[in-house]
């Protein structure tokens, strides 16, 4: 019966007759608009017939495809698109199945025009929102076919086919990305096709004439792919972003994009991802890139990946970037830096390892430069916590240098405002401890870090070399407002910093370290010049440097001369900051005297001094006089009362570091009783008492005296000695007893004084012996804390 109905038009169902009426006798005439309106009205008023209309349209279009009648195919697809837009969403589900079958049939056709038509229709379908998503619908075929079109090599239709393929992928992504019940587009089987297709078109730029306005206005496959990649990344979530990143990394590896000269294409991809991703997910991209470093052992490839990382790591980082993810990224960077200190160069050689370190340090600097200041302080403290406490081997030494370089990268990006915030005890104490390292390179890096953090008025370049005329350097910040935070830093911390500098200067240092030391101290002076405490501590440092240069025989002559030059350079800076005429005149006189008689005690530092110069016998008139400086400062109204209470060196050169002798040292060293009870010495010795002058020796100690002892008495002295002995002998032989008694008691002390002297010596000996006994008892006690803290107070 159906066969007869097909032959007789009046017997056909109405929906079929309405569909047939929209097709003209000749394809060139196009869709019959009036009939199309009738069909649309019928479909809208009879939604239960929509699925049959779709099936019949699909049948007609399939027949026309088989007969290669493209004109009628175009008309049929135009009708299907019109019905798709005009019908209600509730009745679309069944119609869509016919529509998708038709689109699939078009994509299976070998004709490029039909493939392009299919992608356009599918994109229109993706823009329609369905009230009830069809969770049984799959798009595997469309993903495969559109991805193939993105790689089309047809010379005539290449650009159009690739553009259509991208449009089709855009439609698939739009249709599925936000529908929970729809097929999961983030599945690896789909992403492994979509992502390479996008990246392939992004990196395939056909050379075009840029002067053509039409080409400029048209959207090329490269631009479309870039836009689609950004939309795809923007739609990702925490659970789906890794599905996008993995195929991206595989594509970049397979096409060796890391190895390009400037890595333009690799950077372009990751920049598109970083600019499009949600801000709270950007750290995942960085984490995946750093994780990708572990997939290769070649230092060259590591350096290339790290170089790309350095160029994109700062994107999306801002003041709102807070939380544990920040320290996770910093920690990961530090771990990668640490791995290369174990002697594993990955077969790439030291050159690529150095490049790798440089790229990671650059990445660290770029990342922290966009973080808020308070987080930078935390990061610097965190980096210092990774520094090895003991430099046991070369690996630890290298790790220390790497960590200091990382710290410098952060410090370089940090803007110091308040010293109390910048130099917290948790940060400053370990940094000063590292400064005591015997490695000159380590000392240079620590001083460089301090300079970067201290310099708030851009004086670093001006103070890079010691100068005797700092007033001519045009220094900034001399009249800056001294805030309370800086005042607290000066009072509580500055002396500790200078004290560490003293200990470092007691050891041998290169001229470069001494120049860095001058720059560091000079910058601290410029930032604390408005404080009397800063002036007191600086004067103490200057005098201590001069004492080290004068009496430290362990240092080389060159080092000691350089210390004299360092001291007078700092004194000149002190004079220029306090601006006291009396002090300026004294400094000028001292500099003039050294220029005439001791040029080697002035800057610049040098390695070649005249071998005849003796650092042990400097002219007293060429040395810095502490009392003269203190007098000039006091006359100008400076408060120097704290100077006398500083825990600093004794004026005697042998005791200039008395404050370093701890109680433990006293307990481990026995007190000498011989020196205490020896005749001719004062019991209240001042050799270890701060602030008290040591009594000078009565005998002359000079070269002439030593020569006299070695040569013995002269003949004249021998004759006089013999004459005295002869007279004494004759007196005892010939004089009376009364005369001899008077002679013997003439210069002796009274009996009472003699007895008192003997009793004092006995008492002193007893006290010394008791002191020794107490000291030894403390040393031998197996549990000394039980004496100091009774059990009642022990927990």
TrEMBL record:
A Pfam family per the record: EFR3_ARM
CC terms in the record's Gene Ontology section: plasma membrane
Biological process according to GO: protein localization to plasma membrane
Gene3D superfamilies xref list: Leucine-rich Repeat Variant
UniProt record similarity statement: Belongs to the EFR3 family.
Matches recorded under PANTHER family: PROTEIN EFR3 HOMOLOG CMP44E
Protein name according to UniProt: Protein EFR3 homolog cmp44Elike [Nasonia vitripennis]
